[in-house]
Amino acid sequence: MSEVVAVIDYGMGNLHSAGKALEKVASGQQIVITGDPDQVRAANRVVFPGVGAIRDCIAVLRETGLDRAILDVIAAGKPVLGICVGMQALMARSEENNGVDCLGVFGGQVTFFGELQNDTGGRLKVPHMGWNQVRQGMAHPMWAGIADNTRFYFVHSYCVTGLVDEEVAGRCDYGLSFAAAATRKNVFAVQFHPEKSADAGLTLLENFLRWQP
Amino acid sequence: MGLAKRIIPCLDVDAGRVVKGVQFVDIRDAGDPVEIAKRYNDAGADEITFLDITASHQERDTTLHIVERIASQVFIPLTVGGGVRTLEDIRNLLNAGADKVGINSAAVHNPEFVREAAERFGSQCIVVAIDAKKVSAESESNRWEIFTHGGRKPTGLDAVAWAKQMTDYGAGEILLTSMDRDGTKNGFDIALTRAIADAVPVPVIASGGVGNLQHLVDGVVQGGADAVLAASIFHFGEYSVQEAKQFMQAAGVEMRLG
């Protein structure tokens, strides 16, 4: 039986890319895009992507029971990869949409970039969109073959702060320093889009498929 | 150290074929958007933009198939614009694998469409493309107006006010084309780029008029653009994307290299 990797589909955006990128780097694993909580629970590994507004995202997760499935998979010790809003949804709380309680896997907060200035006093554009450098906060199997300060593709207006240092796997600077990657035990979550980050992103996804936490 | 400026090659696609000739020397099929997208990806392009100029509605399905094929082989962001009029158009493109969708004349006809699109799909995937032309006389202070129909039809909309309105409505990025400069190879309209970049809180892509690598630098440094879009200088092999990036980096612009 080949391993099954579930990409959680909860109707929030472009899952095609994440699925296709995983298929590209998979070696024997079966990539399944699914919104069925039982299928998520049965998978060997789970990818939790997301785009759009956090309120809708959390609402759909709770309605469908996918929130419980994600927490169960995490509790079962299976590798879980959160991407973008998927990472944010794993935090305690987001200030988007007038404040939304999230899944609380991490204690971090999701905050708006706000009115930030660049080095010369100009206004920084939000969303933070494009290729920015990730400073790896720790040695980790997910960073295998990826040089420190490699650029990944970001697109987001809210970012994760307030994690304890041991959980910050990577940092990025954009007016402020925020968590570009968070990890605890069998969970790894990234604010950037590995499925859109060319070779570096594909390497990270390949690392995830091999990761034995 | 920080966010890099982006270089975005743009392809015109008609019924699934790249038109306005892309001339890579050793490419198997210069009309195949998938081949070309892969080539630009390998060359280090930061994103790819497709302008779908397909006239007939039936053939738009062809575009969706192309987007699907690209999205399964090219893992950098893909924007698709041209003829996007309904929420269904947007959903179809996103489901096919587009990361962002460009809205142009449909926004002029019905600005609320942009608001609905951003609310439904998120601002991050809604790019409003604006085609602007200078309408002020030399003696007056600069004023640009939005034009549709390839620059032929004036709308009476002030370009700066319009760009602001579109970001208020939820556009996550502005693709700004100077109709005066498009195709001239005389460089971006820097004053226009600067006026829009300073006016809106979201990233601005400068487009229209690139003839050499210094023009790219000027668009970013003088114009304040966050990204530069170019077609012919890359398509005809005058410069490679990598050469452009190295030139810009040498001029002090932060780029994604290597």
TrEMBL record, chain A:
PROSITE patterns the UniProt entry points to: GATASE_TYPE_1 (PS51273)
The reply on keyword Cytoplasm is yes
Does this entry carry the keyword Cytoplasm?
yes
Instruction: Determine the domain of life of the protein's source.
Output: Bacteria
Instruction: Give TM regions.
Output: none
Q: Where is the active site?
A: C84 (nucleophile), H193, E195
- Pathway in which the depicted protein is active: Amino-acid biosynthesis; L-histidine biosynthesis; L-histidine from 5-phospho-alpha-D-ribose 1-diphosphate: step 5/9
Q: What is its main location?
A: cytoplasm
Q: Which reaction does it catalyse?
A: 5-[(5-phospho-1-deoxy-D-ribulos-1-ylimino)methylamino]-1-(5-phospho-beta-D-ribosyl)imidazole-4-carboxamide + L-glutamine = D-erythro-1-(imidazol-4-yl)glycerol 3-phosphate + 5-amino-1-(5-phospho-beta-D-ribosyl)imidazole-4-carboxamide + L-glutamate + H(+); L-glutamine + H2O = L-glutamate + NH4(+)
Q: Which CDD domains match?
A: GATase1_IGP_Synthase
Q: Which residues form the Glutamine amidotransferase domain?
A: 7-209
**Subcellular compartments:** Cytoplasm
Q: Which UniProt keywords apply?
A: Amino-acid biosynthesis, Cytoplasm, Glutamine amidotransferase, Histidine biosynthesis, Hydrolase, Lyase
Which Pfam families does the record cross-reference, listed alphabetically? GATase
- Subunit structure of this chain's protein: Heterodimer of HisH and HisF.
So what does this one do? Answer: IGPS catalyzes the conversion of PRFAR and glutamine to IGP, AICAR and glutamate. The HisH subunit catalyzes the hydrolysis of glutamine to glutamate and ammonia as part of the synthesis of IGP and AICAR. The resulting ammonia molecule is channeled to the active site of HisF.
This chain's protein is named Imidazole glycerol phosphate synthase subunit HisH
Q: What is the species of this protein?
A: Alcanivorax jadensis T9
Automatic annotation (TrEMBL), chain B:
**Record pathway:** Amino-acid biosynthesis; L-histidine biosynthesis; L-histidine from 5-phospho-alpha-D-ribose 1-diphosphate: step 5/9
Q: Which CDD domains match?
A: HisF
Q: What keywords tag this UniProt record? A: Amino-acid biosynthesis, Cytoplasm, Histidine biosynthesis, Lyase
* Localization: Cytoplasm
Q: Hey, which family's this protein in?
A: Belongs to the HisA/HisF family.
Subunit structure comment from the entry: Heterodimer of HisH and HisF.
Annotated protein name in UniProt: Imidazole glycerol phosphate synthase subunit HisF
Instruction: Please give the organism.
Output: Alcanivorax jadensis T9
